[in-house]
């Protein structure tokens, strides 16, 4: 075993192997298809199924968005950028619930 192996494994992150684009492009059609299913659901069990499928398509956006921020910003600036990202993300619940 090479003594440099831990150094190489530390630099080997997911985005360097496959890229986030694959995950983004795979999850977006799932999100769209799930949203169309939610809009046309005739009963509650089918609504729950389509909502589950919709959440599978929407969940990578939050995780990968935080990962992109982690890649772009230096460690000293990352906390502020993550704070802004999550504030904007959580504002959607306030704005959407106020419209109902």
Detailed description of the structure:
With 100 residues, the chain is mainly α. The protein has one domain. Helices cover 85% and strands 0% of the residues. Helix 4 packs antiparallel against helix 5. The termini are far apart.
Strand tally is 0
Low-confidence stretches: none
Quickly count the domains: 1
Tell me, briefly, the overall form: flat
Structural class, from secondary structure content?
Answer: mainly alpha
Report the total helices: 5
Task: Compute the separation of the termini in Å.
Answer: 60 Å
Quaternary structure: single chain
Q: Helices and strands, in N-to-C order?
A: HHHHH
Which sheet architecture does the biggest sheet show? none
Mean pLDDT: 81
Q: Radius of gyration from the CA trace?
A: 18 Å
What proportion of the residues form beta strands (DSSP E)?
under 5%
Proportion of helical residues: over 70%
Topology summary:
Blueprint (H helix, E strand, L loop, with lengths): L4 H7 L2 H4 L2 H20 L4 H29 L2 H25 L1
Helix pairs in contact: 3-4, 4-5
Key features?
100 residues, 5 helices, mainly alpha, 0% strand, single chain
Briefly say what this structure is:
The protein is mainly α and 100 residues long. Helices cover 85% and strands 0% of the residues. The protein starts with a helix and ends with a helix.
């Amino acid at each position: 075993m090479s003594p440099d192996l831990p150094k190489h494994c530390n630099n080997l992150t997911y985005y360097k192997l496959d890229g986030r684009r694959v995950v983004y492009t795979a999850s977006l059609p799932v999100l769209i298809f799930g949203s169309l299913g939610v809009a046309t659901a005739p009963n509650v069990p089918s609504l729950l199924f389509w909502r589950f499928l919709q959440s599978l398509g929407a969940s990578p956006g939050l995780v990968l968005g935080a990962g992109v921020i982690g890649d772009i910003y230096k460690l000293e600036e990352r906390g502020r950028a993550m704070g802004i990202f999550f504030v904007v993300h959580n504002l959607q619940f306030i704005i959407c619930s106020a419209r109902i």
